[in-house]
Amino acid sequence: MRIALGGSAGSGPVGKVLSSLFFSIFVVAGLWLTALLARSYLGTVDQYTWSRTSCTVESAKLVEQDAGRPSEPYLVRIAYLYEAGGRRSATYERSFADVGDAQRLWLAYPEGATVDCYVDRDAPERSTLRRGSLLWGLIVLFPLLFVAAGGVPLFLLWRRRPAAPETATPAPQALSEPERSPRGAYVLIGSFFGLFMLAGLGVLWWLLGAPLRHVLEARAWVETPCTVLASAVRSHAGDHGATYSIDILYRYAVGGRELRSNRYDFTVGSSSGEEAKQAIVDRHPVGSSCTCWVDPDDPTRAVLDRSFRRSYWSGLLGLPFFLVGAGGLWFLARSRRRAQHPVAVAAPTRKAAGAPLALRPKAGPWKKLLQSLIVNLLWNGLVGVFAWALVGEWRRGSHEWMPILLVSFFGLIGLLLLAALPYSLLALANPRPFLELERDAVVPGEELAVRYRLRGRASRLERLRFMVEGEERVRTTTRSGNSVSVNETAAVFHRQTFHDTAGGPVLPQGEARLRLPPDTMHSLAAPHNEVRWKLRVSGEIRRWPDLEEEFPLAVLPPETSG
Q1: Do the beta carbons of residue 262 and residue 331 sit within 8 Å?
Q2: What is the pLDDT of residue 336?
Q3: Which ranges of 159-262 would DSSP assign to H, the alpha helix?
Q4: What is the pLDDT of residues 94-115, one digit of tens each?
Q5: How many domains does the chain have?
Q6: Is the pLDDT of residue 155 over 60?
Q7: In the listed set 130, 151, 172, which residue is the last one of a domain according to the structure?
Q8: Do 434 and 548 belong to one domain?
Q9: Mean pLDDT computed over 24-38
């Protein structure tokens, strides 16, 4: 018994060039973002090599910047003195959007206090009161994932594999031998899904989790009278497509000390909907008295509205990203467990000889439409988020060409996916084929009847064909030093048309006779070899999506037929 196997078709020059351009976008974008983030982070790392020195706070001021209505209007400016090759003075500045955060820093450095500062030993004129967090360096890993996502396929696409010696013969591999899967492939694919999961988790926490935690914490805060000092709706984008936030500045007293806050609720960032925010501002005019809630453990934290607001539900936008990432990691782990614990040669066996068997399609029209919808929602939803942010940056005057190029490229792919959606939708109106085998055993060399029934308008079909295909998949492992690569080739070794209505009418029901060659291969599932059979139903409809259905078929070995 012999099967003719075909090798994997090599990629042509045009395919390689197009694939290289596609993956190069990931590499260039990832390197560009990595360089920007690394440059900022290296400055923070350098500060951790500076020496700790005692310094004296000369003055500490909290001022509000009005020019240009900046997004972080509250500026803390701290002047301090230190000894480093002589008496030197320096200033530390930091801006905040929340006046409570600014007050916290300002109160930590009272005038005349002796505090620690950090001085560059090689350049004593360089110093700082506070160093940045080293944990922010983890964000550099995210663009590196894009570099790996494009760089690894490029390397595999263009690398030259050493030719095997002519005298070398491949060692036979037992079908039950566990196949070693390359860890690099799992790491790369897992990084993709991990990026989605972390991004979704970050959005969920940032927009929903953190506000909900603050709402629960604020239940124990103290009710305190306060007075509105300023009240306005702050714009964050410009005249067109701007986003807005509530900015109500109020004062309150705790322990004889007057403090200020501009936090209305626990919303993060800004959003559209100026009218709703303006209505809230109108209810808090300048000079009016109202009630605020103050954290007894940290009086610089206060809020006007501690209730759970509907806007917090926007954090659920991160749920699809989290589910895609978590689901992908789960399927990846499941496939790896199966690879580590493979089954031996498996072939279908007859359960009830002679009983009819109804075939089920691999994917019906509704399933195909659902798959197309899910892919479109995930892909175009993600691209739409970035496109919306890019439009906002464009209207604010930022005309960076690299983000525009990336979004345009992925948007073009999204348009192609959208173009396939009407095709799947129209295919719902096609006739549905239902197949039944005369008996439950398909054995090479034995003839059996395939009964069919078409539900729907079978008269629309101009031609109906039944084909049976046998395909073998072979997975080979190549080891070179410490690296392991797995290649999979697929080849159709048998294709047979056993029913064709060309030139004749298409009946709504009928019967066809199927007989496979007696020396062909039966169905097989093994770690390194797999033989799959399927029955294809094709129907031609003029000026309409054609009927295409596939039915998986189990073919038994001849020795199990008796």
Answers
A1: no
A2: 65
A3: 183-204, 210-217
A4: 988 888 889 989 999 999 999 9
A5: 3
A6: yes
A7: 130
A8: yes
A9: 83
Structure tokens at 9: 């078709």
Q: 153, 184, 212, 206: which is closest to 322 by C-alpha?
A: 206
- Of the candidates 524, 555, 523, 549, the one whose C-alpha atom is nearest the C-alpha of residue 536 is 549
As a residue count, the chain comes to 562
For the chain, what is the mean pLDDT? 79
**Tell me: the pLDDT tens digits for 207-257?**
888 899 999 999 999 999 999 998 988 877 644 457 788 889 999 999 888
Residue 376 in tokens: 């479109």
Task: Say whether both 530 and 389 belong to one domain.
Answer: yes
Residue 271: CA atoms inside 13 Å, Cβ hemisphere, count? 13
pLDDT of residue 287: 93
Residue indicated by tokens 């350098």? 46
Q: The CATH number of the domain where 103 resides is what?
A: 2.40.50
The radius of gyration of the chain's CA atoms, rounded to the nearest angstrom, is 34
From 305, 321, 345, the end of a domain falls on: 305
208: DSSP letter: I
| Statement to judge: residues 239 and 384 lie in one domain | no
Residues 535 and 414 in one domain: yes
Measured CA to CA, the distance from residue 502 to residue 542 in angstroms comes to: 14
**Is 146 part of a structural domain of the chain?**
no
User: What would the pLDDT profile of 422-436 be if each residue is shown by its tens digit?
Assistant: 777 777 888 888 888
- The region that residue 491 occupies, defined by phi over 0 for left and psi between -120 and 50 for alpha, beta otherwise, is beta
Q: Is the dihedral of CA 454, 460, 465, 468 positive or negative?
A: negative
pLDDT digits (tens, 9 = 90+) for 330-375: 877 776 665 554 444 444 454 445 678 888 877 777 777 777 787 7
395 and 502 co-located in one domain: yes
Q: Which has more pLDDT, 57 or 383?
A: 57
Structure tokens at 323: 């589910």
**CATH code: domain of residue 498:** 2.60.40.640
Which residue shows structure tokens 């900022």? 40
Quote the domain boundaries for residue 80: 49-130
Strand, helix or coil at 352? coil
Residues 363 and 489 in one domain: yes
Q: Is residue 177 part of a domain?
A: no
